[in-house]
Amino acid sequence: METHTLYKDELTWHPACQTDHVPEDGGACVLLGGRQIAIFNFSRRGEWYATDNECPHRQQMVLSRGMIGSQGDEPKVACPFHKKTFSLKTGDCLNDDGHTIATFPIKVVDGMVYIGV
Ligand code: FES
C-alpha cells in the first residue's frame, strides 16, 4: 500500500506581509484565502508565529492584538477580551481545555513573511 507523508517542502508558501508591518513583540492580521491569520513577531525570542486571528471563545477576531509572552518555555498569546491564552506552537488553550486555534508554518525571507498552507 502506498503511503504519503507531508514534508515541509510540499507546503505552498504564500507571501503575507513585509516584516516591518508587524510590530516587535506584537502582532498583525493578514487575510489569506478569505481567512484572517494573526502573525506574531516575537522578537524577544527571535521567533515568528502564525495562528487563527479568531478567538474561539466568543468568535472575536482579535488575537493579533493580544499580548504575547511565555509560560515556562511555551510561547503564548492572550486574548484581549477574557484572557484565554493559547500556545503559539500548538494552538492549545493553556487555561481552558475547551478551545484550540489553528497554527500555521511561517518563515521570513528577505524582509517578507510567508505562511505555509
Ligand atoms: S473572546 Fe477571547 S477570551 Fe473571550
Automatic annotation (TrEMBL):
CDD domains in the cross-refs: Rieske_NirD
Domain of life: Bacteria
Pfam name, any one: Rieske_2
InterPro entries: NasD-like, Rieske-like_NirD, Rieske_2Fe-2S, Rieske_2Fe-2S_sf
GO biological process: nitrate assimilation
Keyword Metal-binding: yes
Gene3D superfamilies per the UniProt record, alphabetical: Rieske [2Fe-2S] iron-sulphur domain
Keywords from the UniProt entry: 2Fe-2S, Heme, Iron, Iron-sulfur, Metal-binding, Nitrate assimilation, Oxidoreductase
Domain Rieske, residue spans: 13-115
Listed SUPFAM superfamilies: ISP domain
GO molecular function, one term: metal ion binding
NCBIfam families: nirD_assim_sml
Name of the molecule in the record: Nitrite reductase small subunit NirD
UniProt source species: Spirosoma arboris
